[in-house]
Design a protein that fits this description.
Blueprint lengths: L21 H24 L6 H8 L3 H7 L3 H27 L8 H11 L3 H12 L4 H25 L9 H22 L6 H12 L18
Helix pairs in contact: 1-2, 1-4, 1-6, 4-5, 4-6, 4-7, 5-9, 8-9
Length: 229
Amino acid sequence: MALSKVSSPKVGPAVVKTQKTWQQIKSEKTRSVILEAAVDCFYELGFSNTTTEKIAKRAGVSRGAMLHHFPSRIDLVRAAVDYLNQKRLELFEQQELLINEGAEHSRISEGIDAYWEQLHSPLFTVYHELQVAARTDTDLRDVLDNSADEFDASWGKVAYKVFPDLALSEAFDTANALTMYLLEGMAVNGHTTGRVPERMIPWLKQQLEQMFADVSEVDRRTAKRTPTT
């Protein structure tokens, strides 16, 4: 189209909204189905017993469709780990925000209970399964190592978002690490031995209340802080 010689006011670049084609939507849906099937197989069969053929069968897709999205097994494993991490983050954020909806101060006790419950979900069980399998699988170990920094950074951002008042405390990072390592360690011990020292949970809640005493009067609805990590 030829431009008119008549001058016109300058405007910013047009924002073009492109809708996804039916084929793109179908492709994304197929990819998600495959990744969901992979996580399900890791949970039910274990990592070492899971093959791409079993995943394809569970997903209800052909071998060709599988190869189209994931040319190799390690490509599938890498994507499945990213998918698993994203699901864990989404579950944590959704539940913690729901618990604290309308609260003046972050509900520490209820938040701990919610996270402890999440650590008994298939998502964490699969994550633990992959960690164990990675001890003797160098490819899987590389995948987990490469995803760890990104996951930790994303987890930190979510924690700042869902606990804006607590994030203002000088003890926030330490308290966050204490919570994660203690509860995840307890969950792992439960998976491997069947024994869980439940008495540690009330102790953890008490410790966190003390650690966050410096922000006990901060209103979470107006507290804001930009993560430094």
